[in-house]
Amino acid sequence: MFDFLINPEPGRSSGRPQLPLDIVSSIISQIEAPADLARVSRSSRIHHFLTVPLLYRNVVLVCRQEERKPCVTLAQMGALLKPGIAACVRRLEVVNKKPSGQDRRDEEHGVWAVALVGIISGMSMLEEFLWNSESMMHPILYEALSRHPKLKGLRIIHPLSLHPPPPPSFAPPIVFRNLKSIHLTGLGSRTTYNWGMSSMPALQIFKVSWRISARLSAIFPEHGPARRPRVLKELHISNVVLDTPIRQCLDFRELRKLSLLDCSVGEESSWDEILRAEEQKVTSTGSPASVLSAGNGGITRQSPIPAARHLKLKSLRINEVGKHWANFLSSFAGLEELYILPSTNVKEEDSVEPFLDAVINYHGSTIRNLRLSTSQPVERRCASKLVRSCKGLEEVSLRIPKSEWKFIEILILFLTRIRVFQLLTTELSSHAEEYEELFARRGDSENQVAQEGESLLEIFGFGTKWAWVIDRTPCWVDGVDPETGKAKRRRAKKGHIEQISVLSGKVGVWRAEERI
């Protein structure tokens, strides 16, 4: 590919024909490595013109601590000030590489924020901004982001420790007219960054976690029984007291993804009341037709009976399997992703079987990704029932005893669409022992997968540290028959051991482990 791209400019060529610009642009768009893009950009003026928008699509500004003073690399700032460069940026990330451990609001921090605001003002195509730092974002920068006409995604990441939050602000919330996604972590109060749901009219994705427990009624203060609920596509909250039914705050039936982690209910509420989706009341007036005869020759017009609406939820992430969640899963159908993370509650968990029965009976035909990180293992009977009913499973993470290894191998074979399978319980004392066990069984695993012909299994996770990654193309390997002792060739799919943390970005059941 580079043979055609890296050529002298017209007039200096060696006689080799040049490709049309649309083909060159298509080839350049397939290059992912920044080093390769930079190399192509230096080959000619045309290639430079086509490559720069891709080189500066995602920009990371690193704030380092040098001699106890924060400074941004001058080369980074200078590159963004060149004509036309800032206009190429679609995603900007600001990282504090060495945390200071306290909230900085001194004069230097303000000067640096003003300089950053000046750069952002030239980023006319900026769509996403990420702040990853131990320090709070300066109010000047926060307000400048709210005025950006193209900004659609805002993410502010703070650890749950170190710096204290600033005092609450009683000024009106800053308005984000075009913001569609907001992700805030480690908030001390609702007004840490002076935001409000009513100040984000276009918001579709709401993802926030608190260090200090917040109340749902305080997050949605402008919504209630007397007002129309807010419409969101995704709701992800952590460490929240659900003191009011969700349906009173937002249109529960329009949600596509829901994450409620480390949440509890108020003293005057119950889980069933919080989760219950209000049924649409339909009044029967006789004939469903919209035009009826009145008997005296006249025509009486009647509105058609509206169809009952059901939940459209496709993804659910929680960290408990109580009876109320089993009842909730039984109230609708069509769930595709279900992730149960480890619970922070010390009380004994409810039985897993009623919860799995609700998944099987109401979501068996649609469920694709399933993770059950409960303290109680899944019994063989429940796992068999799960496999027989949920034939479309592609990613599975279950807690099954290692003593059931033969049963697990059979289980995987019955899941014809399985790509990822993780055995959470290994009953081994260390990650090193898990690695040795996984490595010792590599021959049996390769042979077993290859014998099944067109098996789709790609990754087998063993414990929480290691995974066996299987190559797609089978091959023939030499071996010895253990019964006869004779040499024989066998068909196998080779593979290698990889860390789960490296593969987590590609696997849904592992991406779900990330806390809000």
Structural overview:
28% of the residues lie in helices and 22% in strands. The protein is globular and about 75 Å long. It has 516 residues and is an alpha/beta fold. Helix 3 packs antiparallel against helix 4. The protein has an 18-stranded mixed beta sheet that branches. It contains 18 helices and 22 strands. Strand 4, helix 7 and strand 5 form a beta-alpha-beta unit.
What's this model, at a glance?
This is F-box domain-containing protein. Among the domains are: 1-55, no CATH class; 311-393, no CATH class; 420-516, no CATH class.
Produce the secondary structure layout:
Blueprint lengths: L1 H4 L15 H9 L4 H8 L3 H11 L2 E9 L2 E4 L1 H7 L10 E6 L10 H15 L6 E5 L6 H8 L6 E5 L23 E7 L17 E11 H4 L14 E9 L3 H4 L7 E5 L2 E2 L5 H5 L15 E3 L5 E3 L13 E4 L4 H7 L7 E4 L11 H12 L5 E4 L7 H10 L5 E4 L6 H10 L5 E4 L7 H10 L1 H10 L7 E4 L3 E5 L4 E6 L6 E6 L2 E5 H4 L4 H4 L5
Parallel strand pairs: 1-3, 3-4, 4-5, 5-6, 6-7, 7-8, 8-9, 8-10, 9-13, 13-14, 14-15, 15-16, 16-17, 17-18
Antiparallel strand pairs: 1-2, 11-12, 18-19, 19-22, 20-21
Helix pairs in contact: 2-4, 3-4, 6-7, 11-12, 12-13
Secondary-structure-derived class: alpha/beta
Quaternary state of the chains: single chain
Weakly predicted, low-confidence segments: 99-104, 280-308
> What would the average pLDDT be, to the nearest integer?
78
How much helix, percentage-wise, in residues? 25-40%
Number of distinct helices: 18
Q: Bin the strand percentage.
A: 15-25%
Q: Please tell me how large the radius of gyration is.
A: 28 Å
Q: What's the end-to-end separation, in Å? A: 41 Å
| SS elements, strand count | 22
Query: What about the largest sheet?
Result: 18 strands, mixed
C-alpha geometry: globular
